[in-house]
Amino acid sequence: MGRQRRLDKKRCPLIVICYEGTGETSEKTYFKNFKSRNLRIQFTTGGSTDPEGMLNDLKNYIQNADLINEDDCTIYIVIDTDLKEDRIKKIRQMIKQVEEFKNYNIQVITSAPTFEIWYLMHYKTSGLNYRSSNDAKKALIKETNGKYTESFNLYPLISKNQGMAYNCAKKLEESALKNGEDILKRNPHSEIYKIIDKIEEKNRM
Questions:
Q1: Nearest Cα to 192, choosing from 110, 106, 80?
Q2: I want to staple 125 with a disulfide (CB 3.0 to 4.6 A). Which of 19, 78, 118, 168 is the partner?
Q3: pLDDT of residue 27
Q4: Could you tell me the CA-to-CA distances from 97 to 71, 101, 107, 109, 146 in Å, in that order?
């Protein structure tokens, strides 16, 4: 009987993050902080940095990880626009392609110019319009007094300001939508707050 109950026990929710590059990138370093007894977080592998490659990495991961049998699974593709027209065009194609995965809850989450803009929103809510990903990263190094690297865990230093970053990101997106702006071309923006919403929702269950 005991064994049967263990076999029938529902698994806790799973969030899968498909991120750019390999190793301890900023995205992976950040989201590792949200694992808990109530929530599993996994990361895809493959190492691609372009939209097409990332989608192929995710397809391989889905096939190998048997995600179809998960009780509650949300998948996020976390990608930077880099403020480049060609890349934005490919991200649009990716958004259309993930709609074909009808058995999975997949969302494409973008930031401009780079994921690090989400970090910067924990320090300030204006003056965030950077010309490139490198400019944003240099600004973050300055804000953190040289502590920031992609593998450095900034979360303990910035978590107290998560609400500020959340509100900043949400207001920027709401303003863009109100003004009829294309969110993918909006500089700055970050949809990372949507993943935070999901994490908090699952931890309340």
A1: 110
A2: 168
A3: 98
A4: 23, 8, 11, 14, 39
